[in-house]
Amino acid sequence: MNLSKLKQTNIGESNTAGSVTDFRSLENVIVKKYGGTSVGSIERIESLADRLVRDIKGGQKPIVVASAMSGETNRLIGLAEQIDRDYRGPAYDMLIASGEQVSISLLAIALKKRGIKAQPLLAYQLGIRTDSVHAKARIKEIDGDFLLRLVSQGIVPIVAGFQGVDEEDNITTLGRGGSDTTAVALAAAIRQPGRPTSCEIFTDVPAVFTADPRLVPKAREIARISFDEMMEMAALGSKILHIRCVEIGAKYGIRIHVRSTFEEREGTWIVPEGEVLEQALVSSVTHDANTAVFKLFPVPAGPGFLAELFQTLATRGVVVDIITQSEAAEGQRIAFSVTKEDVPLTRQVLKEMIKSSTEVTLIENMAKISVVGVGMRNHPGVAARFFQILARHNIPVHIVTTSEIKISAVIDQNHLSTAATALHSEFSLDKTE
Amino acid sequence: MNLSKLKQTNIGESNTAGSVTDFRSLENVIVKKYGGTSVGSIERIESLADRLVRDIKGGQKPIVVASAMSGETNRLIGLAEQIDRDYRGPAYDMLIASGEQVSISLLAIALKKRGIKAQPLLAYQLGIRTDSVHAKARIKEIDGDFLLRLVSQGIVPIVAGFQGVDEEDNITTLGRGGSDTTAVALAAAIRQPGRPTSCEIFTDVPAVFTADPRLVPKAREIARISFDEMMEMAALGSKILHIRCVEIGAKYGIRIHVRSTFEEREGTWIVPEGEVLEQALVSSVTHDANTAVFKLFPVPAGPGFLAELFQTLATRGVVVDIITQSEAAEGQRIAFSVTKEDVPLTRQVLKEMIKSSTEVTLIENMAKISVVGVGMRNHPGVAARFFQILARHNIPVHIVTTSEIKISAVIDQNHLSTAATALHSEFSLDKTE
Q1: Is residue A407 part of a domain?
Q2: What is the DSSP string of A281-304?
């Protein structure tokens, strides 16, 4: 992670002719991000505009980030895949970035109708610079000054989430859930010394839960959770927040408030670890129902092949999760897991690098189940309990990986529900009524 | 019209480090514009890609301009109008410009699949600078050098038609049919001294006709027509080409070839007047079935009002076509006509400028019928014949306007078909079989 180039505003510290931003006018600036369901229809956009008018009358100065209308990004991906299922590159990113262009324009029109000065903004206008890893780019720089100038003029910026531009001005996209990252990165770019900066992520769930309630009905809402735990949860398959978004929040101290678009009450605050008061041993059970495993046999000879393979995958933006390797008389055997969305790109890389003599197998019916908690740092023995629970329910574990604050296992998809329910209960996460 | 800032390439004239374009590699560069039906579905996009591959193998170096997939711009306008029927401004332009972003990305993916290096390009990437008259902006400048650099590297530029960016980097759009203008302006921006530059406009009709064949079944195809006549036809309601496109063609000597997407044969060439060999007295009968007339009574007192009204309409991009004015004891009466698409914006301007004591009436069931021909310059008496023909068919003429090479009359919409058929026949334009 390198956000060192993220510009910091020098509001109030200079009086040069170019800096006309009024420091006092920048109280109550808040970044508010709305997901696809919040802008999913004209009716939803109108009601979101009403809600923003209430916020503005209440004294807030919002900077709005919006996703594409729900279903739109999938529709666009579907069009691309009708032509070429495996292609990822600049044209793909330009295509799928058009969804946010539509939603922010419509929201701006709805605000203008209500007498609010709103300006829709695309990545190239805000200088949201990223690297060139298409479909999974990382933000390097944002022109926060420009945003604050608009706010100080009484304009509500409506920013297209999910997109950036690379060094050559080509549109890039940040991957699934990338609008969250846009929002937190904007909050980081406009942060001001001595003022806590926060970012609201409005979504179709009311909060972060101890597990996915569709899988574990007894899952509870979490009021506060640390950046580290949320980062693990995002990495392990929780769909609530994009991992990069939490990373940026942690690095720049941006408190993230995940809450419902449709209710006024508070949801979950993601905050520095010291601000989480009651710390459980395990704070959540997280899963990824769509893990895929690639197996290669025999691995092409020579010590350089695996290094080159994983280097290429990394360069193209594939996150390889777990790798196992074994030697036999017939040759070297390797397996690695990726998330479902990385399957096309992984297949493309393998097609380019593997000769016909190597057999490539893809297994798509795997799931990863994990427990996460900073409490594990000081309490050994969580791993032992984890395996005991799975064993008691006769669930075979294929691959395991651990870190200081999480334990993960790859299991068959059809054992997922049993495993999640059992772990959630045994680690005392079930809600009590 | 001011295209003085349109950059001209200095290829081959300098050897500075920045200029790496190879002059010899720029033979056979041609701008090819494809309308909405050419990219109207994935199947159409695939078959367009096949056709471009054939052109490239045949030695052409195409620069492609594409419209939005057919129906898409109307769908986007429909979304905006659900929120605010009358709004036009930056958010509207950003919204409707997204259609081309989708079609050029998909076409680029289809070409990449066929092994062609293609790059989709938006207005901000090409520096297509316009004024800030939203929904009807005029191109001022294009970075032709950048386009030619891509071509010299073997890359096929796929340019989003219809869009530009203003001085503040906001997206603008060029009005209905604006992609034609984009194409001819690109051809002007890349023209090279001593080489004739042409631009192909692929459309769903095979050529320009002497009248709209749906209205006049005996209409004939025109092989060659002068820029001046085509400009009048566009101004008078012919939907074949955007008027601005023909203006730029005339000013920079870009021969425009209008032809069918679905047939290989030639269509209509729009060329300088001297290159049209057989010049008829009247070359076409043109109509605008959707003329609207606004009437104001009484006009607010004071000499400045009308000047201010028409100035404001012009600034906002409304083209006022015909104006009539009369004085009576009760006050001043004025009527003016605009095309149907300008009705919302006109209504908005009137709403802002007119006090409640003035009655504003809108009549939408008018049509304008015109005959066009450079032959009229040397043959007086065409106007007399025009009125005789209409009188013989008992068609009342409400308003008339003429120029050196055209005569126009506003009539009731229900007389349109009779008038067009009669004029087409009397001026010897009917096809003979």
Answers
A1: yes
A2: S--EEEEEEEEEEEEEESPPSSTH
The predicted-structure confidence for A169-217, as pLDDT tens digits, reads as follows 999 999 888 999 999 999 999 998 777 788 999 998 899 999 999 999 9
Is the ipTM beyond the 0.95 threshold? Answer: no
Pairwise CA distance, residues A118 & A112, whole Å: 6
Residue A8 forms part of a structural domain: no
Report d(CA B300, CA B142) in Å as an integer: 43
CA dist B424 → A170, B258, B390 (Å): 51, 22, 12
Handedness of CA A134, A135, A139, A141 (dihedral sign): positive
Burial B255-279 (b: 16+ CB within 10 A, else e): bbbbbbbeeeeebbbbbeeeebeeb
Of the candidates B82, B89, B113, the beta carbon closest to that of A83 is on B113
Residue that finishes a domain, picked among A144, A172, A204? A204
Distance from CA of A341 to the nearest CA of B (A): 19
Is B46 in Cβ contact with A109 (below 8 Å)?
no
Which has more pLDDT, B356 or B306? B306
| pLDDT tens per residue, range A78-102 | 999 999 998 999 999 999 999 999 9
Residues A171 and A301 placed together within one structural domain of the fold? no
d(CA A263, CA A202): 10
**DSSP-derived pairing of the beta strands B323-328 and B268-271:** unpaired
Residue B92 lies in a domain: yes
* Structural domain span for residue A345: 285-426
CA atoms in the 13 A half-sphere facing the CB of B365: 4
Please spell the DSSP secondary structure of B141-206, one letter per residue: E--HHHHHHHHHTT-EEEEESSEEE-TTS-EEE--TTHHHHHHHHHHHHT--TTS--EEEEEESSS
The pLDDT of residue B398 is 77
**Structural domains counted in chain B:** 1
* Residue B97 in domain: yes
Residue B4 — pLDDT band, cuts 50, 70, 90?
Answer: very low
pLDDT at A18: 42
For residue A105, what is the nearest residue in chain B, using CA coordinates?
A: B91
Q: Which of A173, A204, A235 is the C-terminal boundary of a domain?
A: A204
Contact: B110, A82; criterion CB under 8 Å: no
Distances (CA, A) of A420 to A243, A322, A429: 21, 20, 11
Residues A36 and A166 in one domain: yes
* Angle, helices B98-113/A98-113, rounded to nearest 10 degrees: 180
pTM of the model: 0.81
CATH code: domain of residue A413: 3.30.2130.10
d(CA B307, CA B353): 12
C-alpha angle B87-B93-B97 in degrees, rounded to nearest 5: 140
B215-260 pLDDT, tens digit each:
999 999 999 999 999 999 988 888 889 889 999 999 999 999 999 9
* Cα-trace Rg, chain B: 23
Rounded mean pLDDT, B123-148? 93
Higher pLDDT, A275 or B157: B157
Among A79, A98, A109, select the one facing B84 at the smallest CB separation.
A109
Query: Out of A65-79, A114-128, B396-410, which region has the weakest mean confidence (pLDDT)?
Result: B396-410
Nearest CA in chain A to B119: A91
- What interhelical angle do B243-252 and B178-189 show, nearest 10? 20
CATH number at residue B125: 3.40.1160.10
